[in-house]
Amino acid sequence: MQFPKEETPHRRYSTNLSSQQTRSTCRPFYRAIVYVGLNRKDQAFEWLEQAYQEHDLNLIGLAIDPTHDSLRADPRFTRLLQLTGLIPHVTQLTPRTLAVGTTFLK
């Protein structure tokens, strides 16, 4: 099913994110996913940072979850992975130092 640009499920959901009820029930990690889908990287990173501050356990799959592929090239993503301990703090990141044995890097 094709949605008009302004009627996509992500867009409808994002307009409801600011409501009082949604603010208290929608976890930051899931808000970030909506913004990734909308290609709003700045907002996605804001919510991922909030998820980190709240110690959200959903962040544990961040390094391999394909949902976040569009964010991987951004230095903020690497920083977030380092903060969560999902990758080591190193000066020069290479595929070997990032994820030995995983396939999320090409």
Notes on the protein architecture:
The structure is a single chain. With 106 residues, the chain is mainly alpha-helical. It has one domain. The chain has six helices and no strands. Helix 3 packs antiparallel against helix 4 (41-53). The model is unreliable at 100-106 (pLDDT under 50).
Regions with pLDDT < 50 over 5+ consecutive residues? 100-106
Rg, Cα atoms, Å: 15 Å
Describe the sheet with the most strands: none
- The number of E-state strands comes to 0
Number of helices: 6
The shape is globular
Helix content: 40-55%
Q: How large a portion of the residues is in β-strands, by DSSP E? A: under 5%
- Average predicted local confidence, pLDDT: 77
- Count of spatially separate domains: 1
SSE string, helices as H and strands as E: HHHHHH
Query: Which secondary-structure class do the elements indicate?
Result: mainly alpha
End-to-end distance:
31 Å
Considering the chains and any ligands shown, give keywords for the structure:
mainly alpha; 106 residues
Entry summary:
With 106 residues, this protein is an all-alpha fold. It has helices at 9-16, 20-25, 28-37, 41-53, 75-84, 95-98. The protein contains six helices and no strands.
Record the SSE blueprint.
Elements: H1 9-16, H2 20-25, H3 28-37, H4 41-53, H5 75-84, H6 95-98
